[in-house]
Structure formats: C-alpha cells, structure tokens
Amino acid sequence: MSITDKLDELVAMVENARAMPMSASCIVNRSEMVEAIEALRASLPGELTKARGVLRDRAAVLEEGRVEAQAILDEAEASRAKLISRSEVVKEATREAERLVTAAQAEAERMRREVDDYVDAKLANFEIVLHRTLSAVEHGRDKINGRHELEDLADSDELAEPLPG
C-alpha cells in the first residue's frame, strides 16, 4: 500500500468518526489511528528512499541530457566549421581555375599570333619564290618565242630573197 493510500485511509477514518455534539471535534479509535500512523511511518523510509532514487535518477538523466546536448552542439560546430572550410576550398579552387583558364586563353592567343606570323612569313617567302619562278618561266617563254620569231623571220626572208649562191 502506498503512502497516498495510507493517507487516504487516515482521512477516511477521521471523516467517518463519530462527531462530538456541538463541536467540530470527533471521536476516533485511538488504537486504529495509532496503528495507521505507525504503518504510514514504517512505509515512509521506503517511499523516501524511492523518492531520493528518483531524484538521483532525474539528476543523472538531466546530466546525461546535458552531456548529450553538448556533444550534439560540438558535433554541429565541427560540421559547420568543416562546411565553411570546404566552402573556402571551393572558392579558392574556383579562383585558381579561373586564373588558369585566363592564363591558358592568353597563352593560346599568343601562340595563335606566333603561328599566324610564322605562316605569313613562310607565305611571303613562297610568294617571292613563286614570283622568281614566274619571272624565270616568262623569261624562258620569251626566249622560246623570240627564237621562234627569228626562225619565222629567217624562213620568211628565205622565201622573199633567194640566197646568193
């Protein structure tokens, strides 16, 4: 029987006791009342021990909760720091990538200009060689044409004037 039940029993004993005429007092059986109070007193140490245990358990549970909450907060802070760190690494990597792309584009443009200059110089040399070759070809053709003209003249002179002979 719990302390509450025993207290309820004591209250019932007083409420059910015979009333004293013209008074708020009542008559209770002394031995029954003493027996009920002694039973209550006997159960108090056990109940108090249970209550102290509950309080101790409560304190332990609260401390465990505090420790767990602190661990969660520490873990969250570490995760936050890691995410910030990753974010900074990503930003730095992006900046470095942009720098490398810009440098590569500049290098490609420089190489393109050098190749264009090289090709232009080779084409200019080829143009000079072609002009010389063309001039040589024209000169050779002129010579051939000139020889043919001389032969034609010589042939026409032979027909026009007989050779002394």
Name its key features.
about 160 residues, mainly alpha, 2 strands, about 0% strand, two-stranded antiparallel ribbon
What is the topology?
Blueprint: H1 3-15, E1 18-19, E2 26-27, H2 30-160
Antiparallel strand pairs: 1-2
Helix pairs in contact: 1-2
Mean pLDDT: 84
Order of helices and strands: HEEH
Query: What class, by secondary structure content?
Result: mainly alpha
The tally of beta strands, per DSSP, is 2
Please mark out the parts with pLDDT under 50 across 5 or more consecutive residues, or reply none.
Answer: none
Name the helicity range. Answer: over 70%
Strand order of the largest sheet: 1-2
Gross morphology is: rod-shaped
Please explain how this structure is put together.
With 165 residues, the protein is an all-alpha fold. Helix content is 87%, strand content 2%. The chain has one domain. The chain is rod-shaped, with a radius of gyration of 62 Å. The N and C termini lie far apart (174 Å).
